[in-house]
Amino acid sequence: GAVVSQHPSRVICKSGTSVKIECRSLDFQATTMFWYRQFPKQSLMLMATSNEGSKATYEQGVEKDKFLINHASLTLSTLTVTSAHPEDSSFYICSAREGGNTEAFFGQGTRLTVV
Amino acid sequence: GENVEQHPSTLSVQEGDSAVIKCTYSDSASNYFPWYKQELGKRPQLIIDIRSNVGEKKDQRIAVTLNKTAKHFSLHITETQPEDSAVYFCAARESGGYQKVTFGTGTKLQVIP
């Protein structure tokens, strides 16, 4: 099956700093990537959708200036959490899809802890 | 936008019994319904899916049913085993736009040996 690799798997950062998370499709070209946030014991909440070469589309309530998403190539999307605060601590997970009507595959997720 | 509700939030069954998880969705245009199993700290894994042109699908001990009219779909696990213990999410994918996937709230399944 298709492989999506997400790095880092865990990161601890200080309040006020920025953290970049990478999501790579290893064996297919991902025209669309999705970024989710999952708080403990809760569901996956879609943050934004990105298509290669265009600006990301953010869900209502998600600050685009705080969660910067770049989908510069067909195999890589990045999520940068800027000026992180403890309330940003969460499990961030990406998924990638090759084309329309195809299955989306998940990365292994990133556990972000802001101290 | 799409809204997916899932019940129950927790479910405990004896090993060998069946488990049923139910979901409803709001957007009649959604046409693909995957189910995911997620273990603690891991990525969701697709276990079965169903498209809107099909009413039922089975894969060994797992089956899914879809009632498009009522906008209900359900996951059935038979002969449960301790390794089935996990959190299960239903989801609905929109047919247009970016084909976003909306997840249900999750069901924590515990299979008691």
Word description of this protein:
- The complex is a heterodimer of chains A (115) and B (113).
- Chain A is globular, with a radius of gyration of 13 Å.
- In chain A, a hairpin with a 5-residue loop joins strand 5 and strand 6.
- With 115 residues, chain A is mainly beta.
- Helix content of chain A is 0%, strand content 52%.
- Chain B has 113 residues and is an all-beta fold.
- In chain B, the strands form 2 sheets. In chain B, strands 2, 4, 5, 9, 10 and 11 form a 6-stranded mixed sheet that branches. Chain B has a 5-stranded antiparallel sheet with strand order 1-3-8-7-6, with no helix packed on it.
- Chain B starts with a strand and ends with a strand.
- The mean pLDDT of chain B is 95.
- Classes of the chains: A mainly beta (115), B mainly beta (113).
- Chains A and B meet through strand 5 and strand 9 of A and strand 5 and strand 10 of B.
| Alpha carbon gyration radius of chain B | 14 Å
What structural class should be given to the helix and strand makeup of chain B? mainly beta
Mean pLDDT of chain A: 93
Global mean pLDDT of chain B = 95
Major sheet of chain A: size, sense and barrel closure? 7 strands, mixed
Gyration radius of chain A, to the nearest Å? 13 Å
**Bulk shape of chain A:** globular
Shape of chain B: globular
Interface with most residues: A-B, 24 and 19 residues
Secondary structure: number of strands of chain B: 11
Alpha carbon gap, first and last residue of chain B: 41 Å
| Separate helix tally of chain B | 0
β-strand number of chain A: 11
Q: What is the percentage of strand-forming residues of chain A?
A: over 45%
